[in-house]
Amino acid sequence: MSAQSSSLSPFRRRAPRSAAAVRGVGLIEVLVAVLVLAIGLLGVAAMQATALRNSQSSLERSQGVMHVYTILDAMRANPNAARAGAYNMAMTCAVPGAGNLVANDKRAWIDTLQQNLGTTACGQVACVGALCTISVRWDDSRGTSGSSTQTFSTTTRI
Hints:
The chain is of the alpha+beta class and about 160 residues long. The protein has a domain at about 60-155. The chain has four helices and four strands. A hairpin with a 2-residue loop joins strand 2 (about 120-130) and strand 3 (about 130-140). The protein is rod-shaped and about 100 Å long. The termini are far apart.
């Protein structure tokens, strides 16, 4: 084997020609590491924002369910009026006026609904005999479900 063929071996490492040829390599490695870290932190921040949006949407859904059962409890406390259709009202966002027990229940329900779910929250009660359907609609534009309007409905027998 000649001396020239051993110097061309692919496994042999060549020493750098000068110190100036490798100057700044450590700085580039640090910059690449900082870039990778920054991209990772941006990903964590995006996941946190998504989790916050989903939590808000989940809270609003839970409150919508709670409000449906609130008016149902008021109707169960006054079953004769509920079965007679006194609680019936079309989907409305306007707070009804005060008056008798039924009017006060509906007023308190819509008022509380809008306090918890926003001023665009609306409610509907539709009873046919003892079978009642209660619906709550609100704006969920901060949620991630794709639709900005959410509706929750429950049908029960009074």
